[in-house]
Amino acid sequence: MARTANDSRPRIGVLISGRGSNLQSIIDAIASGRLDATISVVVSNRAEAQGLQRARDAGIEAVYLSPRGYPDRDAYDRALAECLLARGVDLVCLAGFMRLVGQPLLDRFPKRILNIHPSLLPSFPGLDAQRQALEHGVRVTGATVHLVNAELDAGPIVLQAAVPVLDDDSVETLSARILVEEHRLYPEAIGMILDGGWSIVGRRLVRGARV
Ligand code: GRF
After folding, report:
1. Per the confidence metrics, is the pTM higher than 0.85?
2. Per-residue pLDDT tens over the stretch 47-105
3. Ligand 1 centroid vs 25 CA: distance in angstroms?
4. Residues 40, 53: contact at Cβ < 8 Å?
5. What count of other Cβ atoms lies within 10 Å of the Cβ of residue 99?
6. 1 close to 42: Cβ distance less than 8 angstroms
């Protein structure tokens, strides 16, 4: 998967904090030809993130960037941005990255940062979205891929998938069914964003050529 000088595919940088199953779905989509892109780097803010090993196993550069090495949030975000820019990243994909993205990163990748969230936003932003949905008693929840802005889980929505909540669901069973949809949805949304032909109108991401 290492990029060569003649590899003209768009370059993705993936930010993770843990398991990395969504990272794996992107790796798999590229390997099977469903997504025309290359992952230039995977960065984690946690040393123990399982996703770092997934990256190495796929021959992708894996970087642990400790927040402790920086005086404040902005300094860390600048370091993240530098790491991604140095590798020519075109699109940043947050995949279980458990930090708010700050302005230094947003400014360097305008409309070029995606996130996946395990609910139908704007319902249940933040932590434990599956538990929030279950406890609220909704009959349908799901997964959302959205562009990242300065607010938590609030940027323009790219794609969503609905998942029914069953009477006997636990947080674990519901999360597992949502995750299946996440793994299908994220590569598709990345492909859509990379293909272009979309624009932001108000809060909406609208597809189709605009003159
Ligand atoms: C996923 O449920 C994702 O929607 C959320 O964090 C979880 C990350 O899982 N943002 P993984 O690390 O991709 O397995």
Report:
1. yes
2. 999 999 999 999 999 999 999 999 999 999 999 999 999 999 999 999 999 999 999 99
3. 11
4. no
5. 16
6. no
